[in-house]
Specification:
With 341 residues, the chain is α+β, with helices and mostly antiparallel strands. Helices cover 40% and strands 13% of the residues. It is built from twelve helices and nine strands. Strand 8 (251-254) and strand 9 (257-260) form a beta hairpin.
Length: 341
């Protein structure tokens, strides 16, 4: 029999993302325990302490989703980081973002909870290219030193994959902490759990901010925002981080400001041999978006100038194994770089 986690992984994204909340309906009790759960997993959900058992959220969760949210966000509720889950505002293959009502520990009214799909990051394509040079982190963001855990990660056992999954989440959280403290335009991260991150919500009660990919800009605003994005790329590099998956799809736009999001693939410019290739790809994708907004640039030159500004040695080749062969943008980018050599 499948576990409720396996059922949740197989949920249709449309069911998860587009389910609407009926604001006139009041929740009648704690999230239901799915009838198809085996006894051991029913017992697990019933064994949560009283505070978690009383976590009644407004969001009308899809089948099996309620149990997953209780498991992923219940600790945040217990420690008063959140008081309610209002709706799912963004769904994806790797994670879904939920709009939550903040609890007593947060001054803001609204807060975002990024909840990862159970096996999403474990199966990330070419993850070796991003993991190279990174320490493995545990659920507290500390470097894993235990030989048994390191061996399980290296062998990619079931336990090891769980640990690697947690390490991805920890890297996103700790990177956001460092970059927010350095003044980058990233959401403020509040807390991390085994499968979720709490952070500032960008948007309002009607929904989250759109990404740059969803909007067109006036020329003057496009010029200003392009400069702002480059400042952030420069600031990341100054703090020894490369986003790893930066594009107009991972930059939010709200009231004239930008916010960079999604940092699990962050790499170090010093310890990752593929860092410059990944950096060039980030800069190129950003420049391609702003080129469509009428802002011309030379992405490879921009990348090289920023790279050498921070004392890094140029390594110009973009190796095709870094890129997703199914992504037309990646194929075109690699071919473009190949033709330039």
């Amino acid at each position: 029999m499948k576990t409720y986690l396996e059922f949740f992984e197989e949920l249709d994204d449309n069911e998860l993302t587009h389910r609407l909340v009926n604001k006139n309906r009041k929740p009648k009790g704690p999230p239901p325990i799915p009838k198809l759960l085996p006894p051991s997993e029913k017992a697990f959900l019933r064994a949560q302490d009283d505070s978690r058992a009383n976590f009644n959220f407004t969001y009308q969760a899809a089948r099996f989703e309620a149990g997953w949210l209780l498991n992923s966000l219940g600790g945040f509720y217990e420690h008063q980081w959140i008081s309610d889950v209002l709706r799912c505002v963004k769904g994806g293959k790797e994670a879904s973002v939920y709009l939550c009502r903040a609890g007593a520990e947060v001054e803001a009214d609204l807060i975002a909870a990024k909840v990862y799909r159970p096996r999403s990051l474990r199966n990330l394509k070419n993850d070796h290219a991003y993991r190279e040079g990174r320490d493995n982190l545990d659920d507290e963001g500390k470097i894993v030193l235990d030989d048994g855990k390191l061996h399980a990660m290296a062998q990619r056992t079931a336990y090891g994959k769980n640990l690697l999954h947690q390490s991805w989440i920890a890297y996103e959280f700790t990177s956001m902490q460092a970059l927010h403290a350095a003044g980058a335009d990233v959401p403020r991260p509040y807390e991390m759990a085994h499968n979720a991150i709490l952070m500032d919500f960008v948007g309002d009660e009607t929904g989250c901010a759109p990404t740059l990919s969803e909007i067109s800009l006036e020329h003057g605003e496009a010029q200003n925002l392009f400069g702002r994005v480059l400042q952030n790329i420069d600031l990341l590099l100054a703090n020894e981080r490369i986003h790893g998956d930066l594009s107009a799809y991972n930059i939010l736009y709200w009231e004239g400001e930008i916010t960079l999001i999604d940092f699990p693939q962050v790499v170090s410019p010093k310890t990752n041999r593929n860092a410059f290739s990944i950096f060039v790809r980030d800069v190129t994708r950003v420049c391609e978006y702003f080129a469509k907004q009428g802002i011309g640039s030379h992405p490879r030159q921009i990348a090289a100038d920023l790279w050498t500004k921070h004392g890094h040695r140029l390594a110009p080749e973009i190796h095709p194994r870094l890129l997703d062969a199914e992504d037309e943008r990646d194929r075109a980018l690699w071919q473009k770089q190949k033709n330039m050599r």
